[in-house]
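request received
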Amino acid sequence: MTDVLPSTDELNAVVLAVAGVDGLFAVAPLSAVLGTVRDALTHRPPAPHSVSVVAHGTALSVAVKIGVADGYAAADVCRRVHDALLNHLTHHVTNHGTAAGTPEVAEVAEIAVTVARIG
Amino acid sequence: MTEPREPQAPFDAFDVDTPEREVAHLAGHTIEQLSDYLDRERTPADPSIDESPECQIALRSLQHLRNVQGTLLAQDVTRERERGDSWVTAILQNIDLEAHSGRDIPLAHPSPSARLVVTEGAVRGILRATGDGMENIIVGRCRLHGDVSSPSDPITIRIDAAVSAGEDIPAKAHALRVAVYAALRAHTDLTVAAVEITIRDVYLPTPAGESVDPTGIEQP
Amino acid sequence: MSPPLRDRIASPLDTASDLTLVGRAADGDVRAFEVIVRRYGPLMRVYAARVLGSNDEMDDVVQEAFITVWQRLATLEDGAALKSWLMRIVSRKSIDRLRARRERADFDLHEPLAPEHQSPPRMAEAHFQTQALSRALANLPEDQRRCWTLRELAGSSYVGIADELNLPVSTVRGLLARARKTLLREMEEWR
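response:
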């Protein structure tokens, strides 16, 4: 199943390419965002400063915490990050999920974007 | 009541192991009482202390000790101030920046998969930055009162601020209020019922080249 | 999350009141916190070194104190009382450190700690006297030095010291009296 998860590097690049994003922060605690996946996470090292991706059943959940640069409206930047991720993940699911015939990742369940700092 | 003291002999009252000699030599007082008397700046005046030569000797010594310890402290603090910056950096790198992120404030989005929020900490950052962008006003503590989790519920923003002496306070507060409304509109979906600004402090602008030592450590 | 360490440029925050800085830092403003660290950190370092009797653990103690400060700033009701609050926190951290030291090594703590500088008194009188006081303080028994430092450097009340050290007020008074008399007596010898 991990094979079909999009790489975090790839997703980090998607987020950082959005105009107005000037930093990524560690997403923690992820368990609070994703509830039941806590068990899968207990053996992980401390959260890196990056997008976090978890497959829960057939659903893909993504969380990211961003900093917004001075001069940009945080609400707009936040929505654009969501849209960029959704766009990227939709393609990913189409290409890897169904094309590979693996039903594990069939849909994008949640994209959580948190603006942790502005300016 | 006491014999004249030998010039080189130790002052009996400072003898650590004989408290009864202390009282006998200090007109019934203790070093502690004299020290407290100095703390009170010798007011109200106590004739039993002021008129006792022994007490005066002890007070002079206590005062001298304080002067020396004041100089020592000032020297030590100056030395610490002149030390490199690495200890400041180490502290700032070890604090948990998430500690003050506060509540999550949702942003609307038509997609059912979207879970978009701005943290309360980030919003307070905007309020501070708004003030920092204006001259002669510094925004202090900021509070968001109300249920921020529901964007349609009106909330009240309370801001403490300090203004530079001589400023027109109502005009400054008005300008800040206008700027705060604009900033919150740009960055959040919050419905703001009111922005209450309390000027808690008036500060003196520091003339260039003059350093302030706000720790209040006196250089004797 | 790595701290946004920005270039240090002169800012109106540098001269802002404690009240304003506490409000901002309690809201998560790292810049205001940095001004607090620079304003009171040196005094706290001096203080910690005096209580500990050495510079060895001063960095750790002051760092621990400021991490606590950052977490608890919002609980400080009166921002103007910042200095005494900071001194209480660094006192507590220093005392915790002394306790840990005692647990580690069961040696006689009343053995005087080696004074830092033993330079000959061939210097201006004022300098000589401060050096002598520094040595005299280092030679005080630990419990007396703690009481004296809390009283004279942190400006704590007798009751405050008693609370801090978990001792009866009468004991604190006794320890302070002994510390003062020892220092006064030593000072007589400097003349």
